[in-house]
Amino acid sequence: DTAVSQTPKYLVTQMGNDKSIKCEQNLGHDTMYWYKQDSKKFLKIMFSYNNKELIINETVPNRFSPKSPDKAHLNLHINSLELGDSAVYFCASSQVLGASTDTQYFGPGTRLTVL
Amino acid sequence: GNSVTQMEGPVTLSEEAFLTINCTYTATGYPSLFWYVQYPGEGLQLLLKATKADDKGSNKGFEATYRKETTSFHLEKGSVQVSDSAVYFCALNVGANNLFFGTGTRLTVIP
After folding, report:
1. CB A45 to CB B95 under 8 A?
2. For the residues of A31-78, what is the DSSP string, one character each?
3. Residue A99 — pLDDT band, cuts 50, 70, 90?
């Protein structure tokens, strides 16, 4: 019944490694997002994506790349992990792209720790 | 630009106390406003929202009114419970591609 799910919940890895976080939504939504929550709980958008358009936050390093095999999935791939990438990453989805009234539904988060 | 300012936490209250968490915003266009809650170890859940001026969002005893004249969306609850302990985020959406979040306010309710 989980609307937005993410795996893994926890991810501990070494600097320099490449890792992926998976996200799936069963809400039939057209748009998915990735947010990063830092150690002070501040949330910032990384990407938004629907089947037509990828919007990248320009502050996101190009080591981060979203990959969407289909409308229900948006995975986050990270190359050459750095210590500063340690954070909680949240996936979210909404019905449409660009509608201010639309509610975003969030996954449970993936806590990434880079050693 | 678009931004949200929330009162600094943490906030500690006794059970049954009155809660206010202040939120003000700046926005281009006409935003919708949201309160999300993050319980310990969990993801964000929508608590309530309002999509136009003077709308009141409410859920689980929480309320917030969209005040365009003061650009505010303060969260209130008349009587908090221990189970309300969480981090509360105010957010806005102007029809761009993402939510703009405040910094979050941690609420702890003690018995």
Report:
1. no
2. EEEEEEE-TT--EEEEEEE-SS-EEE-TTS-TTEEEEEEETTEEEEEE
3. confident
- Write down the mean pLDDT value for chain A: 90
**Is the preceding peptide bond at B10 cis, omega within 30 degrees of 0?**
yes
Share of chain B above pLDDT 90, in %: 80
By CA distance, what is A45's nearest residue in B?
A: B98
Best mutation target, A4, A39, A58, A101, to test chain B (most B CBs within 10 A)? A101
pLDDT of A47-79, one tens digit each? 888 876 787 777 889 999 998 888 899 999 999
Q: Sheet holding A64-70: strands in order across?
A: A4-7, A19-25, A73-78, A64-70
Rounded CA gap, B83 and B103, in Å? Answer: 21
Integer Cα distance of B105 and B98 in angstroms? 20
Do B28 and B94 meet the contact criterion of CB atoms below 8 Å apart?
A: yes
A109 — contact with chain B (CB < 8 Å)?
Answer: yes
**For residues A60 and A85, is the Cβ–Cβ distance under 8 A?**
no
A60 touches chain B (CB under 8 A): no
Residues from chain A that touch B97, judged by Cβ atoms under 8 A, are: 33, 45, 48, 55, 97-98
Q: Tokens representing B12? A: 């500690």
A100 vs B31: CB contact, 8 Å cut-off?
yes
A5 neighbors A108 (Cβ within 8 angstroms): yes
User: Which chain B residue lies closest to A92 (C-alpha atoms)?
Assistant: B44
